Amino acid sequence: MAGETVKVQQRTENRKLKAFSDDEESHWNGPFCFIQAADTQLGLYDVHIRKFDEPDVTWSYEVTRTKMAIQAANRMSPRPRFFIVCGDLVNAFPGTVNREAQERDWHETFEELDDQIPLVCVCGNHDLGNTPTASTIQGYVRSFGTDDYFTFWCGGVYNIVLNSQFFEDPSQVQDLADAHLKWIDEQLAHAKSKAATHIFVFQHIPFFLESFDEAKQYFNLDNPFRLTMLDKFESAGVKAIFCGHYHRNGGGRYKGIEEVVTNAVGLSFGENEPSGLRVVNVYQDRFEHKYYPVTDIPLDPGLAEK
Ligand SMILES: [Fe+2]
Question: What do the Gene Ontology cellular component annotations say (predicted)?
Fold first, then answer.
């Protein structure tokens, strides 16, 4: 059963990541880096490129790239404080033929991540289903050992991990989606009351891909909901929203917020944009980030002050 192979470092309890303690991590303690990845999505290459029917699908394409990313993170010095995967951990939807095997191999792949680097999971549309239900959410929580939304402090930064399927299609889980929104307000108030050095948000589906006023399409979230949320985050002092789902790099600014859309670790849809991950360097007064193909991840994250 997948739950037995879940790394201790990725578990949550009461919507908090257990790997980080509030007492130790809620204060600024100097610059640090973390890894932001997205869409490991085991099985997508065979479905999307090779057009295989599900019984024939394999996922060595994605496992190979994910292992390259993990090995690079393990070698990095100074060590990344965490490795977050912004959704679509696997490609097979809940209840479909390859789902259990992909979950098992995903856990087995991440066994190689250094235990000193907490693994942070974000749920995506493939993880929960495009129209999530209470049952698919429970299945995800059981399999990945992590809540569908939660928070964690890291070095004075308050990190809020969201379930963007509630934003995309709450039709079967309206009560849970309402509770999620109420919880977000509470987290933003909490971050403010604790004078967080920065507030970062992580979710799978971006609010927008290039510009906050672009039209709704498959890879972004609807308006006017998009602007309602961006205004809420902006007035609460959120500095960045990190996302995936697009399988290309993207993002842009909305007032004081930077939205960062990161290409897949697994299959990239971008022309001349190999799959990879993003290194984020966090300073007291700012943050910087850079995307690297999995073949070209540096040993040194390039923190200006160590
Ligand atoms: Fe996705």
Answer: cytoplasm
CA distance 72 to 204: 23
Closest by Cα among 222, 289, 298 to 259: 289
Residue 168 CA, ligand 1 centroid: distance in Å = 11
pLDDT of residue 2: 47
Range of the domain at 133: 26-280
The b-or-e profile of 159-171 (16+ CB within 10 A means b, else e) is: bbbbbbbbbbebe
Going from the Cα of 267 to the center of ligand 1, the distance in angstroms, rounded, reads 11
CATH of the domain at 175: 3.60.21.10
Split into its structural domains, the chain has a count of: 1
How far does residue 257's CA lie from ligand 1's centre (Å)? 22
Q: Residue 274 domain-assigned?
A: yes
Whether 242 has a pLDDT exceeding 60, the answer reads yes
pLDDT digits (tens, 9 = 90+) for 64-106: 999 999 999 999 999 999 999 999 999 999 999 999 999 999 9
Residues lining ion ligand 1 (Cβ < 5 A) are 88, 124-125, 245
Burial class (CB in 10 A: 0-12, 13-18, 19+), 48: middle
Residue 127 has pLDDT above 80, yes or no: yes
- Does residue 20 fall inside a structural domain? no
216, two tokens: 């709704």
Residue 3 in any domain: the answer is no
Cα of 285 vs centre of ligand 1, distance in Å, is 32
Q: How are strands ordered across the β-sheet holding 276-282?
A: 119-122, 83-86, 32-37, 276-282, 287-293
170 CA to centre of ligand 1 in angstroms: 16
What's the 18 CA to ligand 1 centre distance in angstroms?
Answer: 26
Q: Measured in angstroms, how far is the CA atom of residue 227 from the centroid of ligand 1?
A: 21
Largest CA distance in the chain: 52
pLDDT above 80 (res 120): yes
CA distance 185 to 188: 5
